[in-house]
Every structure is written in structure tokens, then in C-alpha cells.
Q: What sequence folds into this?
């Protein structure tokens, strides 16, 4: 985890350093790897499939903007998209795009609810998930009491794994309530990680807004299902001497939020870093403009891409596992085996903590 | 802060809405039927295994029971045969004893009857002899009075009459 984060940071700083000379170079060579990579991992108001010498294939997505006082405006992003062309940003209905960011021409506040590339991918993956898992469910209805078949038999071991190894082991007897969320979040992350690796697709699960919402949901579920033992553990951590409690309470309360925060950053950083690495290897071709780097690019690009296929599954699993561990900590009936450090105030030996 | 590190409001909104929608729909139409069928299947497999185990135990018990039954039957048969032999012997003995006793009784009775008959016959012979004697004596006495020759003759003729009594 730390490694991937540092890889990400390395690339971030690299791209920043590379920006200075590249900005000048881009005028001559027309290629800026930092910009290209950030464009690819970022969101946009149109779906740019591919570009050829004769032009690019782009799907213009709907702009939905809400401005206090002016109300809702809905139109195609084609009206304000500059495409490949340079020059001043096109304006429509008092709105324009500034580095893929929707702003109003008069500087007033704009709430952008546009169906961006990421949201289109989100809808697509949602539909895909609904189609696949209702098909799996139909399999259970059709092969009732018999062995699973087809798509059902592909997903059954995964579902059983999530149930037995993730939910049952970490949450305990109350696991059944959380199964829908755990399964949905697992397959949502996995599917979107894989879809994100598809050429031309959006980087949805590597978007911090998406991972933030997922992490917040885990936080809300954890807090909503927490019992008195959970709070007792935070505000009266067993085995901690009383003078230290104020510090421990602060640490534990911060801990409530750092857990989902780490979920958010972990998924975002892993997926984004993977994309950056793959794109960087591809960029080598354009930077060196030589066939000689092709074997290197190909070998490393392929290696990282295959690694990313693994990471896609791994991150989905880790997110689900940690979510179920946090929920398990919140619903646990009583804390056994809490480590006792030191002695109680009166010097007596520590009693068993519960 | 770089743009990709800033969560966009629109994406947060749509992610929340669409994810919750997917969660709700999948929970209702996929996870619920899938998890319940999985559970149902596991339960049925478990109960089938348990039933097989139970059947095995029952089978063993049945087999042990059968063997016990068979052994019991064999024992019973032996006992019955022994009993029957004893009873048959007893019966034979008693029958024989009874027959012997009966035969003895019959013989006894026969003997007694013979004795009685003999006594009766002897008594009758005696009576007849006495009667004849009295009769003869009467007739002799009557005749003697007339002639002695005729008396003897008369006695003879009477004796002739008496011969086949």
C-alpha cells in the first residue's frame, strides 16, 4: 500500500517536474505526457474514444447545470466543447468549460450535475451489474435445487467466498444484514476497476469522488450499526490508565474517520497509480519517438496491465474486507483479548478487560 | 490541489444516487434470491448428509437387531425343542403309568368278577346239591315206606333226571 502511494507520489512529482520543459516542448512537438496522463485519469464532459489524423471520435455527453436564480440548464456538451481546436472557450447559455470544469461566464456559482464520462461509465457499470446479477439470480430460480450452471457457477464461488471468508469471519453472526452492501461494493469496485483498464474507458474507481462516497457509506453503516461496546472502546479504552484517556479519546475519535479515509485514499491511489504507470510506459513511445523503446514499453506496459488486473480484484477484496472488519468492530458483542498495558492507578494487577 | 484530487460535486451526487439505486435493486432482485437459494441448498445438503448418517446408524442397529432376533429365535427353538422332548417323555411316562394302572384295575376287576362268578356258581351248585339231596331224601323216604326195591329203582331214576342240570 505504502509502496503504491509512494509510486503515485513519485509520478505526481515527476509529472510536475516534467511539466516545465514539456510546456515549451509541447509547442514544437505537440506532446505533453503529464497533461495527457492527467487528462486520461481525469473526468471530462465528452467521451473521447480515439483520435486519428482525420479527426477524433467523440461522444458528446449532456451538460446538466444548476445555477441559483437561473435554474436548471440542460444541453449537449458539443455546444461548449472546443474539441482539439485551440482558441477561446466556446460559450453557451452563459456557461463555458475551463480545463474540463464547467464555469459561468459571469463568474456566478454553478452546480455541475452533468452526465460526465465518469457518470456515463457509472451508469453503464450499474446496468451491467444489474443485468449480470439478475441473470445469476435467474439461474438460481431455474436450477433450483440443482448444480449451478453458466454465469451462475462463475459468480457463485465468489459470492460464497465473500460470505464465508469476508463477512462471516469478520462480522460474526450478524453478517447477513450487511451481505447486500458487501457484495454490491465488492462487485462495483471490481467491475469498475476492470472497466477502467479497458482502452477508451473512464477511470471511475480511480476517482476520488467515487471512492469518497463508498468510504462514507462504509462509515455511515459502521456508525449506524455500532453498539455500546464500540463506543465504550472509544471513550473508555480498556487497559488505558485514566490520565491518558483524554489523549486516547482523541486518537480513537480520529480513528473513526481515518479508517474510511484510508479506504478512500487506498482505492483511489491504487487505481490511479496503476493508470499513471501504464500510461507512462505508453508515453515513452511518444517521448523517445523511436521503435527501439517499443519492446520496453510493450513488456513493461503488458506487465503492469496484467498486474493491474490482479490489483483490480485485490483492491475490491481489500475494500470489502476492511469494510466488514470495521462493521465487525462496531457490532462485536464484547471485546475479548484486549491487550493490557501496565497497571491500574492503584497499582493492582490489571483485571481482565471487557 | 490538482483537479483529480478534488472530488466533484456532480460525481459525488450521481455516485451516491446510482450506487444506492444499484444497491437497492441488487439487494432485492439478486442478492436476496441468490443468498437464500445458497442457504437453502446448503441446508438441504447438510440435512441430506445428516440423514444419510442417521440411516447408516439405523441400518447398523437394524442389522444388530436382526442378528439378535435370529440368535433369540435359535435359542427359543432349542429351548422349545428341549421342552417338547421333556414333555413328550413325561407324557409317555404318564400314559404308560396310566395304562398300566388301568390294565391292573381291569385285571383286578376281572379277577374279582371271576371270583364272584365262581362263588355264585359254587353256591348254586351247593344249593342245587342240597335241594337235590333234600328232594332225593324226601322221595326215598316216601318210597321206602312202600318197598325197598322200588326205592333203589326210584333213586336211580331220579339221579338220571338230575344228571343234566
A:
Amino acid at each position: 500500500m505504502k509502496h503504491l502511494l509512494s509510486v503515485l507520489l513519485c509520478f505526481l512529482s515527476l509529472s510536475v517536474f516534467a511539466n516545465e520543459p514539456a510546456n515549451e516542448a509541447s509547442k514544437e512537438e505537440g506532446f505533453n505526457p503529464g497533461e495527457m496522463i492527467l487528462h486520461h485519469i481525469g473526468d471530462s464532459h465528452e467521451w473521447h474514444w480515439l483520435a486519428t489524423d482525420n479527426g477524433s471520435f467523440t461522444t458528446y455527453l449532456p451538460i446538466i447545470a444548476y445555477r441559483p436564480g437561473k435554474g436548471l440548464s440542460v444541453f449537449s456538451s458539443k455546444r461548449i466543447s472546443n474539441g482539439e481546436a485551440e482558441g477561446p472557450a466556446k460559450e453557451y447559455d452563459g456557461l463555458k468549460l475551463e480545463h474540463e470544469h464547467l464555469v459561468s461566464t459571469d463568474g456566478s456559482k454553478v452546480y455541475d450535475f452533468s452526465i460526465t464520462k465518469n457518470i456515463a461509465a457509472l451508469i453503464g457499470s450499474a446496468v451491467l451489474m444489474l443485468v449480470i446479477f439478475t441473470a445469476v439470480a435467474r439461474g438460481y430460480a431455474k436450477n433450483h435445487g440443482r448444480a449451478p450452471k453458466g454465469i451462475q457457477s462463475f459468480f457463485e464461488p465468489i459470492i460464497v467466498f465473500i460470505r464465508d471468508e469476508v463477512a462471516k469471519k469478520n462480522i460474526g453472526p450478524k453478517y447477513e444484514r450487511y451481505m447486500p452492501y458487501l457484495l454490491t461494493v465488492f462487485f462495483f469496485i471490481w467491475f469498475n476497476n476492470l472497466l477502467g483498464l479497458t482502452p477508451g474507458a473512464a477511470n471511475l474507481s480511480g476517482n476520488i469522488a467515487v471512492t469518497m462516497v463508498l468510504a462514507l457509506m462504509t462509515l455511515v453503516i459502521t456508525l449506524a450499526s455500532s453498539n455500546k461496546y464500540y463506543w465504550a472502546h472509544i471513550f473508555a479504552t480498556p487497559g488505558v490508565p485514566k490520565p491518558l484517556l483524554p489523549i486516547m479519546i482523541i486518537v480513537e475519535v480520529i480513528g473513526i474517520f481515518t479508517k474510511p479515509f484510508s479506504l478512500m485514499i487506498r482505492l483511489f491511489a491504487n487505481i490511479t497509480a496503476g493508470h499513471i504507470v501504464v500510461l507512462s510506459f505508453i508515453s515513452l513511445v511518444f517521448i523517445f519517438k523511436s521503435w527501439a523503446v517499443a519492446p520496453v514499453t510493450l513488456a513493461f506496459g503488458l506487465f503492469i496491465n496484467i498486474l493491474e488486473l490482479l490489483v483490480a480484484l485485490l483492491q475490491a477484496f481489500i475494500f470489502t474486507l476492511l469494510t466488514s472488519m470495521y462493521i465487525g468492530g462496531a457490532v462485536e458483542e464484547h471485546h475479548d483479548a484486549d491487550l493490557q498495558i501496565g497497571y491500574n492507578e492503584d497499582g493492582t494487577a490489571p483485571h481482565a478487560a471487557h | 490541489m490538482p483537479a483529480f484530487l478534488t472530488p466533484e460535486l456532480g460525481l459525488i451526487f450521481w455516485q451516491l444516487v446510482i450506487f444506492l439505486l444499484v444497491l437497492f435493486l441488487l439487494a432485492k432482485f439478486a442478492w436476496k434470491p441468490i443468498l437464500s437459494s445458497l442457504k437453502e441448498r446448503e441446508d438441504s445438503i447438510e440435512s441430506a448428509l445428516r440423514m444419510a448418517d442417521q440411516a447408516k446408524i439405523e441400518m447398523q442397529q437394524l442389522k444388530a437387531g436382526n442378528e439378535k432376533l435370529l440368535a433369540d429365535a435359535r435359542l427359543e427353538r432349542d429351548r422349545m425343542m428341549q421342552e417338547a422332548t421333556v414333555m413328550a417323555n413325561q407324557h409317555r411316562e404318564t400314559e404308560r403309568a396310566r395304562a398300566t394302572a388301568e390294565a391292573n384295575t381291569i385285571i383286578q376287576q376281572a379277577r374279582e368278577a371271576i371270583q364272584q362268578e365262581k362263588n355264585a356258581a359254587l353256591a348254586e351248585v351247593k344249593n342245587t346239591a342240597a335241594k337235590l339231596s333234600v328232594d332225593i331224601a324226601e322221595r326215598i323216604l316216601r318210597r321206602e315206606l312202600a318197598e325197598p326195591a322200588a326205592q333203589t329203582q326210584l333213586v336211580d331214576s331220579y339221579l338220571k333226571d338230575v344228571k343234566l342240570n
Observations:
- The CA atoms of residues 11 and 17 of chain B lie 10 Å apart.
- Chain B has a mean pLDDT of 87.
- Chain B touches chain A at residues 2-16, 18-19, 21-23, 25-27, 29-35, 37-38, 40-41, 44 (CB under 8 Å).
